[in-house]
Write a structure and sequence with these properties.
By secondary structure, the chain is mostly helical. It has 18 helices and no strands.
Length: 399
């Protein structure tokens, strides 16, 4: 059995090279990271590299990465930008999120007979878009500053907030389901948590950030931000709201406190967010995707192939179809709606986190988890190919 350091080395090395090879042919890096995890899950390889202690360590690192991801999302959530583009983007975001959610929930609950909670997990998994993959694709095609790129980015910004709301609601539902809390007890916990957050925002955070900024040192600011993150996340867990929600709120609170109360120059490019981004996306998030691949049951891919195809169809029809409907209602063209829809169609970040938490909580089976992973992989593979073709066709028509 290999040592933990060798296990991490093999996981990161495989994640890097798989991602590098696939990115060279235009496939998102997350596909390679999940792919190496699936390869390492082959019983002979898995039993050689991963002892139970190694799996526990990888699980811890993966979940730490998820916490930092939610923290980073909070740090990057610009509520002013959301308000600025609300009218332009909310229609598209509402349709391309709610249509696959409702369609997925209805099929799972009323046709296939899954429970309400399982149907919600699947529905949300089908409705959440991977904005990071869409942005990477726009950057590759030099469309960031184009009209289409701007529309995808602004719609994606609204999508992110809708998705965070859905994630928050679903994580809260997980907590209530697992702990069997009464609804009144849960509401009391939420109120107490909100009171603690308000106190922290008004008095604690401004003092703490000024204290950690005394040295004018990047390392001191970074350590201070991590202490605040862990404090708020622990508080969130104590009140039963959930660690990930606490991490996201911590990021939003720190951003707002720095902008309004504690002057730190060049916040948009500040080393707190940059350092979190490097550690999360350069180390821990790849390990999370490897962990997702490790927990994917290869055998169930064949036995659940029809279910995987069904999920891909619902996710794609809901997202692309919802975007087309919204674009037409906003007096846009069908081709524009198609282009935006495929640009927003890739799945593969928050939905995999929710699926992982649902699997660990025993809410969904390994078969459903594997189907959601494969759905994400297929949308990440198919969407960029079709989006590129539509971009070329759109440019020919519009000149």
């Amino acid at each position: 059995m290999v040592q933990p350091l060798v296990m991490v080395l093999v996981s990161l090395l495989g994640a890097y090279f798989f991602s590098y090879i696939l990115k060279r042919i235009g496939i998102p890096s997350a596909v390679g990271q999940i792919g190496i995890g699936i390869l390492l899950s082959i019983p002979l390889i898995k039993s050689t590299i991963f002892s139970q202690a190694n799996l526990d360590l990888l699980s811890f690192l993966a979940h730490l990465g998820v916490i930092l991801l939610f923290y980073y999302v909070g740090l990057e959530t610009n509520l002013n930008l959301f308000a600025k583009h609300l009218k332009k983007s909310v229609l598209i975001s509402a349709f391309n999120t709610l249509l696959p959610l409702l369609l997925g929930f209805a099929v799972m609950r009323f046709i296939l007979g899954y429970s309400t909670v399982v149907s919600l997990v699947i529905g949300v998994g089908l409705s959440v878009s991977a904005q990071s993959i869409s942005l990477s694709l726009l950057n590759e095609l030099n469309l960031i500053k184009s009209k289409i790129g701007g529309m995808i980015i602004t719609a994606g910004a609204v999508d992110d907030l809708i998705e965070l709301f859905l994630a928050t609601a679903l994580l809260s539902l997980f907590h209530v389901t697992i702990t069997q809390l009464t609804f009144s007890s849960f509401l009391v916990d939420i109120v107490l948590f909100l009171i603690a957050i308000i106190i922290a925002r008004i008095w604690v955070l401004p003092f703490a950030l000024r204290f950690f900024d005394r040295e004018k040192s990047s390392t001191a600011r970074f350590m201070g931000s991590l202490i605040i993150l862990l404090l708020i996340a622990s508080l969130s867990e104590f009140f039963g709201v959930g660690v990930l929600i606490g991490a996201m709120i911590a990021g939003m609170l720190i951003r707002q406190t720095i902008i309004k109360d504690v002057v730190i120059p060049n916040w948009e490019e500040h080393d707190i967010a940059r350092s979190i981004h490097i550690i999360a996306f350069g180390f821990l998030i790849p390990l999370f995707f490897v962990w997702v691949g490790l927990n994917t049951n290869i055998a169930s891919i064949v036995t659940n192939l029809w279910f995987i195809i069904l999920l891909v169809v619902i996710a794609t029809v809901g997202t692309v179809g919802g975007t087309i409907i919204a674009t037409l209602l906003d007096k846009g063209s069908f081709s524009e709606g198609m282009l935006l829809g495929w640009g927003l169609n890739p799945k593969g970040d928050i939905e995999l986190i929710l699926a992982t938490l649902a699997l660990q909580a025993g809410i969904i089976t390994t078969g459903i988890f594997t189907a959601l992973v494969m759905m994400s992989l297929l949308t990440m593979l198919i969407s960029p190919i079709i989006f590129r073709r539509l971009v070329y066709a759109y440019h020919k028509v519009t000149g």
